[in-house]
Amino acid sequence: MIAFYAPDVSLAYQDRHAAFGIAEDTQGRIALVEVTKPGKAPYFDLPGGAVDGDETEGEALVREFGEETGLVVEVGARVVDVSQPFLKSDGQPVRNYGGIYAVKAVGERPELKVEDDHKLVWLDPRDAVVALRHDAHSWAVAAWMRKG
Question: What are the phi and psi torsion angles at 16 (to 5°)?
């Protein structure tokens, strides 16, 4: 597992098992979510998020992709395992840990999208490396490009 950033020792980070995915379209762009929270500047993340209950990372990734983008995906190869502490938009200190996977979009079901503050955006992977909020996500995209 590759760890990004040293946590601020004055904060108590909550560990959050999470999985994220890299989906490529037919034009070579990858799916990101642009997240807009009230009073905050928008930011870009890879689609994905917390693993709930007894879910596998793959099951969580399929669910999260649907909730954030309305896309139906199949989970492919793991690109990398990462760990990164950060402050959520509400200020809560969290340490995401888990896999980032290559995924394939196999359909669209708009009724799955329930996160109104997430908007699906397709970017060239090189632009995504610069735009992504988390260094772990940027590094995973760069590693994915090198493997492709």
Answer: -135, 110
Chain CA centroid to CA 125, Å: 14
Q: How far apart are alpha carbons 105 and 77 in whole angstroms?
A: 14
Strand 14-23 to strand 30-35: parallel, antiparallel, or no bridges (unpaired)? unpaired
Q: What is the pTM of this model?
A: 0.94
**Pair 19, 100: CB distance under 8 Å:** yes
CATH number of the structural domain spanning residue 17:
3.90.79.10
As a whole number of angstroms, the distance between CA 71 and CA 130 comes to 24
What the block records as the tokens of 95 is 């340490």
Please give the tally of structural domains in the chain. 1
Q: Which two tokens mark 23?
A: 């989906």
Domain span including residue 120: 2-147
Q: What confidence tens digit (pLDDT) does each residue in 45-68 have?
A: 999 999 999 999 999 999 999 999
